[in-house]
Amino acid sequence: MAAVQATATSDHPGTLASDRPQRDLFKYNIRFDHTPAEVQHLREIETPWVDGLLARVAEDGGEKVDTFEKFRERMNGIIEEEAQNPPPSCLFLANEADDKAFRFIVEQFAVDALTEAKSFLPILGHLPVTAQMPVLRVLIDEFGCGNLSQMHTYLYMKLLDELGMSTELDDYFDITVEEVFAFSNIFHWTTKRAPCPEYFLGGLAWFEAVVPTFFSHYVKACERLGIANHHYFSEHVHIDPYHAHSVLKAIQETARHRDLDYERVWHGTSLLATVTADAFDKVVDVWTKGEKV
């Protein structure tokens, strides 16, 4: 996607002549004060990007997903496939990444971890009350049940401290690849500007279900490298199966209140799976090839 060209100051991302559209979009998404011109610029970045992703996932050619059972079966199928055949990027992290490579991977995903789950909050008002509750249970865990020491962002900050890295979000804006910003941005789209909550529900159901497998590679790397503050990863491995169950419950409760478009739920899964793979594969690729961000 070609970057939108603009002029003015660096104080507002919408006024930059930037070749980093996903970074600019991320800066919009974590702010609340937007001028009309900035909102327009946000849309100019986001709309063609999301349209392209939706077109990409619509080409999967699989059987139409029109029931909860079909959705769950297809989702579990792709999770099981990745568990049985981990991608090379995950195997690199688990078995080969040295201290510097591990530090780089942690650095690259800091923008997401330092803002973790904040993008989920707007979705609650778009769900029936009985579906809000299981999603809220996920959020309560994400924020440590009100206990700072258990908050997931704080656990990541402890890891950053151990690695001698900054815990300030702004320090990562210029050193993070576009694909990681895109990973965070898709959550903001699903909760704030998507036409329905189905995309969020499908995406989060997959993400919570796959993280125990995905983060097990981080846990293995931490054990191999002697990383003491592994709890951001090991806690996700422990708690996310419960979160996955909660999101599936939210899908069922939403379906009890209205006709649910399971094709869009599945597309939400496909969106998250696509941007997640793009982000992690890109980060590992940049490291192994010695590229500049």
From TrEMBL:
SUPFAM superfamilies, per the entry: Heme oxygenase-like
Region named Disordered: 1-20
A molecular-function term among this protein's GO annotations: oxidoreductase activity
The keyword Oxidoreductase is annotated on this UniProt entry: yes
Alphabetically ordered keywords of this record: Oxidoreductase
Transmembrane parts of this sequence: none
The keyword Heme appears for this protein: no
Lineage: Bacteria, Pseudomonadati, Pseudomonadota, Alphaproteobacteria, Rhodospirillales
Protein name, UniProt field: Iron-containing redox enzyme family protein
Skewed-composition ranges (Polar residues): 1-12
Organism: Ferruginivarius sediminum
Highest taxon listed in the record's lineage: Bacteria
Gene3D superfamilies (UniProt xref): Heme oxygenase-like
